[in-house]
User: What shape does this take?
Amino acid sequence: MSDFCMPSLGADMEKGTVVEWLKKPGDRIAKGDVVAVVETQKGSFEVEVFEDGVLSEIVVAVGTEVPVGAVLARIDSGEVATVPASAPPQAVMPSMPAFKPAVVPPPRPAGERLRLSPAAARRAAELGVDPRGVVGSGQGGAITLADVEAAVAKTARAAGGKTRRGFDPAAMRQAIAGAMARSKREIPHYYLGLPIDMDRALKWLAAENARRDIENRLLVGVLLLKATALALKDVPELNGFWIDGEPRLSSAVHVGWAISLRGGGLMAPAIHDADGKTVDQLMAALRDLVVRARTARLRGSEMTDPTVTITSLGERGAERVYGVIYPPQLAIVGFGAVRPAPAVLDGAVAVRPTVYATVSGDHRASDGVSGSRLLVAIDSRLQAPEAL
Amino acid sequence: MSAPASIDRLRKILEAVAPDLDASTIGVDQDLRNDIGLDSMDFLNFMIGISKQLGVAIPEADYGKVTTLAKCALYVEQRGGIG
Assistant: This one.
C-alpha cells in the first residue's frame, strides 16, 4: 500500500484542491494514468500516478484544499506485484474483481455519530465524498444515497465553472509573485545577449511553408526551440536544477515553453526531450501544449519537468527580453521579435532579419562564459536551418 | 463591405481555435494580433480553420492582408470562399 500525495507543481505551490477524481476505488491504475484534477493558484492540472496498482481508497474529497504532500488516496500495489511475470495475461484479468471487495466505506472516527445508510456509505466511498460534509434528509438526519449524490453534483457544479473556464487571475498573480520574488532573492542572475541573423532560417522556413499544406506549416518559434535544445546539449551546464546548494545537471533537455494566457499570467509547461524531436514533432507538441494550457488540461508533471525555460515574444513586440529564472532551474533563454536590423556583413552595413537572443543564467551554477557559448551555439544552429 | 454572415462564420472558427476568447465581442476592425492578442500559433490555427471550413488556403505571404475580421472576410469572399 502506498500513498498518492498532493504533488508540488512548481516552486510557487503550497497547497491545492482536488476538483475531480477521474478514478474510483477499485479501479486499476497504471503508471502515467491521470487520476485526479487538482486546482492550484496557476489553474487546474491533471495529476498522474507513478506506479501500477489499484486505487484502494480516496482520502481527500472533491473540494477540499490540502497542503502539498498531503495524502490524497491510497494505492494498493502489492497484490499486482505478486503476479508472476510468467503468468499469462488472461490469468491476471479474472483476478481483477477480487480487488473490489476491498473497497469499503472509510472508517469513521470513534465517537462521531454519523447516520448514513449502507448504500449511501458505499456511494460516498466510490465518489470520494466525506459524508461528514453531507446534509442528511433521512429519518433523524440520516444521510441517504440521494443526499450523497446531490452533494457531489453540487460540488461538481461549483468546481466546474472555475475548473473548465480557466483560473483566478488574482491567484495566478500571487503564484507568479511568489516564484519570481524567490528567484530574484535567491538566484544571482547574469545576463547576456546576442543578435542573430535570421536571413537563412527565414528563407528556409518560407520555402518549406510554401510547399507544405497549411496544416503542416511551421512557425519560426519551432526553429528557435530546436536550436536552443540542441545548443543545450553542447553547453549542458545551463540545463538542470539548483537543489540543496549545488547544480544537478540533466542529461535530458525538457524545454519549458512560456505561454502567455489571455486572461493574465503565464505558464511554461514542458516539451519533453526537445533535442531529439523533429521540427514537425515539435510543432505538434507546441500546438497541443498551447491548446491544453488555454483550456486547463495540462498535466502536473509538465509543470515540474522543465530543465530550462524559453520565453519567445513571438513575431511582434519588444526587441529583447531578459528573463527571470524559474526556480530551481538554472537558466532562461529569451527571444525578442524578429525584425529588420542593420548588420555588418563583409565590412558593409546591410539590413537583415534579426532576432535578439538572451540568456539569464544562475551564477551559482555557471559563469558568463557558459552562457556566451550557449548563445553562440544557438546562432550557429540557426545558420543551418535544414539540419534542425 | 462583407456580409454579416461571413463575419459570423469567421467568429465561430476563431472561437474554436481560441476557446478562451469571446469572439462575439471582437470588433470587425480590431487587429487580431495586436488588439485581440492572438499569438502566432493561434493565428496559424485560425488560417487552418478557414482553409478547412471555407476552402480558402491563405498563403503565408498574404497574412498581412488578413489582420482583421473585416479584411479576412473580404479576402475569403474574393476567392469564392463564403457563400
In short: Chain A has ten helices and 20 strands. Chain A has three domains: 1-103, 105-166, 188-387. The domain at 105-166 of chain A is CATH 4.10.320.10 (Dihydrolipoamide Transferase). Residues 80-112, 156-166 of chain A have pLDDT under 50 and may be disordered.
